[in-house]
Amino acid sequence: MRITFIGAAGGVVTGSCHLLEAAGKRVLLDCGMVQGGKDSDAINAKPFPFDASGIDALVLSHAHIDHIGRVPLLVKRGFTGPIFGQAATCDLLPIMLMDSAHLAEHNAELAARHGHDEIEPLYDEADVGAAQKLLHPLRYETPTEILPGITVTLHEAGHILGSALVEVTADGKTLLFTGDVGMKNTPILRDPADPPRADLILMESTYGDRNHKDRAATVAELGEIFAKAAKDGGNVVIPAFAVGRSQELLYWFAQHYDDWNMARWKIFLDSPMAARVMTVYERHEDLFDADAVKVWAGRIKPFEMPNLHVTADADDSKAINQIHGGSIIIAGSGMANGGRVRHHLANNLGNPKSHVIFVGYQADGTLGRLLVNGLKHVRMFGQELRVHAQIHTVGGLSAHADQQALLDWYKASPNHPPVALVHGENPARETLDGKLEKQFGIKVTLSQPGMTLDV
Length: 455
Ligand SMILES: [Zn+2]
Ligand SMILES: [Zn+2]
Hints:
Elements: E1 2-7, E2 17-22, E3 25-29, H1 40-45, E4 57-59, H2 65-68, H3 71-76, E5 83-86, H4 87-113, H5 125-132, E6 135-138, E7 144-147, E8 150-156, E9 164-170, E10 173-177, E11 200-204, H6 215-232, E12 236-239, H7 245-255, E13 266-270, H8 272-283, H9 290-297, E14 308-310, H10 314-319, E15 327-331, H11 341-348, E16 355-358, H12 367-372, E17 377-380, E18 383-386, E19 390-393, H13 403-411, E20 419-422, H14 426-440, E21 444-446, E22 452-454
Helix pairs in contact: 4-5, 4-8
Bound molecules: zinc ion (2 copies).
Residues 16, 64, 66-67, 180, 423 line the site of one zinc ion.
């Protein structure tokens, strides 16, 4: 069995992709998009360092764009084999990729309008449709011979709905690819499964150098902000991504419906994509953890709260702009660098009674980062806006295992095999490397694009 690192290697977090050669076949693990940075469009358009038509099968760890974003491109360039993923991943994939295709087409249009060189969108809806036809949904804990001599078993990764640790057995060897590992006690999802026996683990290292704030304290902080906002009488705007965080917020609202007095608010989820994702959650309630099952069986159900308004079309979205107080508005994007949330921010940033809550990581160069940094003037829709609203940053809701959680997870391995670290920037993966070597005395490889490991 031979592994070649292609993406999310060499100190890069995004663009997850690894090539596995075994039993005379070539299997790709993930085919993600590079995200963030000025050059990402150009990097994603580059040829693959392998022949797409020579890949026999593709296995996906989960439906985040940094793990599936280049799948339609792979198909467009000649891949015709089966695509395997957990059933919920297969349901989320078209929602995520259609959004990605629209964004690519929109960016190409913008470039043309601004007189830049013509750029061809990476792929379009038809390419997404073609990829969708190749999907083969798998269940957790069900060994499946995906190609002659190659068996895949998916285990819960607890990161997003459908996320999986991918166990591949071939040529008498076993590889475990973590994809992204979640934190224990992530709402709605079950905890990550313990690692099964393996000969090598390809392990993510996103937060290899730090630990998150306590989740319970974070949730309590949310409740306090709502209490203050209710007293002030303005709106609350929460930029959030459509998958995961939006549903988590609704879960907490339902769980704390009485003690946070949520009935006094009008709650808007202003995101057609988040609405589509909710239907996938409902189709896969069998994947929920015990607490979520209890909440869903309760009087107030997260997606059916009596004061929840899910706005799919643009006119409904614009109508929210007329509301000057008493609303909680959840909308994308999570970093406020695009999407409907920008309209809600434009309407509320000038109001000292309004509150804005950031619940996720804000990357450099985004509007979210500027606001979190306390900037008092921002430019939106061609206008200078003075920021009077109260800005909050709530940490501790990360979907990724932190350093301690990664070490605890590895500790549970029955045989402590060597590790290759992927999906982490340099300080993070180097720090985790040091911890793993010291605590377990194992060999750790820092992956580089093009590097090959024989198992
Ligand atoms: Zn992920
Ligand atoms: Zn990832």
